[in-house]
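INTERNAL TRANSFER SHEET
From: sequence group
To: structure group
Subject: TRAP dicarboxylate transporter-DctP subunit

Please process the attached sequence and return the structure record in the designated field. Keep the field labels unchanged so the import script can parse them.
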Amino acid sequence: MNILKCKSTKLAIASVLLAGLTATSFAAERVYTWKLATTWGPTLSPFIDAPHQMAKLVEEMSDGRLIIRIDASNKHKAAFGVFDMVKGGQYDMAHSASYYWKGKDINTLPFTTMPFGMTTPEQYAWFYEGGGMELMQKAYAPHNILSFPGGNTGNQMGGWFRKEIKTLDDLDGLKMRIPGFAGEVMAKLGVAVTNIPSGELYTSLERGVLDALEWVGPGMDVNMGFHKIAPFYYTGWHEPATELQYLVNEKKFDRLPKDLQVILKTAMKLSAYDMYIKNYAMSAEALSEMDTKYPNIKVMTFPKPVMDAMKKANSELIAEITKDNPLLKEVIDSQLAFQKKARAWTIMSDYNYLKDNLE
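Return from structure group:
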């Protein structure tokens, strides 16, 4: 008997085909709703802008199939808790900075920046062409987390100080907010180092909880009002290319369809670069207005003996922390090797151009 001429058989085949098409259609149209927690408050531009732009891009590019809801730190109440919330699955994603997790896993430290390290173009080249991305995933793998660049501030200023720093003795006992490896360097030089969320910085400085703090650069700093209390504004050494990060729960990422994974990674990369552009423009604008709008600000550079002491302490500390930590040594050695290679081009291109064309 020809089974295709059997009415009941044809109906059964049609039902199977229809069920398959319906299942495929439902899979294609499924909407994934994610939650993202930030370390930043809801008005801290451009840091908070990056995840919002990323979420908007994801929704548009996915035609609404992936929706990302964003909770700023004022909602989830744990600015420095986002790592654990992503790791534990309470949030699918976060936007923060890798050096905040040095107490949880020292291997995450270098992926934000290192004192006297790479500039922003050098660091981006290391991430995407020099093996940095692979090392970052290796560092985060034990936590079942993926990490992606989340936006760069460029070279950050060295901080706001109530009093001028003339000698090393002026650092001894100074209470300062400074995160990352730079905090370790300052602590070695006698500074009482702490890390305080952005929303508490001004009041901590005002009430004397802090004698000094570093934040970002003119574009973000002057809006915080630090100059009203601490007018000595020092140029940078500690964060030459501060890269923020997106943290992603690895299991949640793996459950996304492949096209949504690509869309998410593309949106993160674009929003990261856009944050760098915005922050650069903000600082350029703020600096151009500083003399007239904020005449009390005294822009300074640290004295050479202080800088020399910082460099010495930095080298000694790197030797100490990498001695018994092979992965951290691998990461820092990779950064230093790429920095040496890239710096030759930076000097030939940018430095010589600037040196020869200063007005």
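Handover comment: Confidence is low (pLDDT under 50) at residues 1-5, 9-14, 21-26. The first strand starts at residue 32 and ends at 38.
Transfer complete.
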